[in-house]
Design a protein that fits this description.
Radius of gyration: 21 Å
Number of strands: 17
Length: 256
């Protein structure tokens, strides 16, 4: 998946999973040119159903000699290095969640989430969870639109009330979720945006923060990422629309 935060144009992006070949390039036509380390793409691995759990494997990217791999600025090639990575296959489940905001950019799908498992009937806003798991979402490859997915490692089995929460969003709750060893996917509904101060309710205090940052973008002195609900890099009418839609809603919200 392209990460277009720094290199804003995808020049080539295709893969042959059978042969393990990826052809990808990205660039930018804007000034100043990006500098320092930054992510320009991510690769998602899907676990084979027959793969054993709780193992790790080394992943190596071999750069083809027939296609030049380089970084260049104004025609000057910048040399660099690469290193192998390790992919861990852990027992757990894939979580799926809808993210609000039709204008959400690709890197806006990288959202930190906290998932908590409670005994059934618990007061999920005050009781101590059985387990808490944090993760970061990524764009779901099998679904279009605003679906994101993430991996939950070490998920307990049994019957639970489960919550999911994130920055400037209300917490969702799913009641009486049955988690078994064979469970592979949990759907957590839609994270409702607008809770800029993370108080658990979308109210006038959040509107005040939104108004202060309205019509600003990342880099402006008044820009406030907590009111950039769709993570577009700018606070605008689209963020106000999300706020207005969820006004006076509160956590925990039944997973819509």
């Amino acid at each position: 998946q392209p990460a277009l935060g720094q290199l804003s144009i995808t020049l080539a992006n295709n893969a042959n999973n059978t042969t393990g070949q990826i052809v990808y390039s990205a660039g930018t036509l804007t000034q100043p040119n990006p500098s320092g380390p930054f992510k320009f793409a991510s690769v998602t691995f899907e676990i084979n159903d027959n793969a054993p759990l709780d193992i790790s494997t080394v992943v190596r990217f071999n750069f083809s000699g027939s296609r030049l791999t380089k970084v260049s600025v104004d025609g000057s090639v910048i040399t660099g290095t690469h290193q192998d990575a390790t992919v861990e296959i852990n027992s757990g489940v894939t979580g799926r969640v809808n993210l609000e905001g039709a204008a959400r950019p690709n890197d806006g799908f990288e959202v930190p989430v906290t998932v908590k498992f409670f005994n059934p009937g618990a007061s999920v806003m005050t009781d101590t969870p059985v387990r808490t798991i944090t993760a970061v979402t990524a764009p779901a490859q099998a679904s279009a639109g605003t679906v994101a997915e993430f991996f939950l490692s070490g998920v307990p089995t049994g019957s639970f009330d489960v919550t999911i929460d994130s920055e400037h969003a209300l917490a969702n709750v799913l009641r009486n979720v049955q988690v078994q060893a064979s469970t592979k996917t949990l759907f957590f509904g839609t994270l409702l945006e607008g809770d800029a101060n993370d108080s658990g309710v979308v109210d006038i205090l959040d509107f005040t923060l939104l108004a202060q940052a309205f019509l600003t973008c990342d880099g402006d002195s008044r820009y406030d990422s907590s009111t950039d609900f769709d993570r577009s890099g700018c606070v605008n009418i689209l963020d106000f629309t999300l706020f207005a839609k969820n006004f006076l809603k509160a956590s925990p919200a039944p997973a819509p």
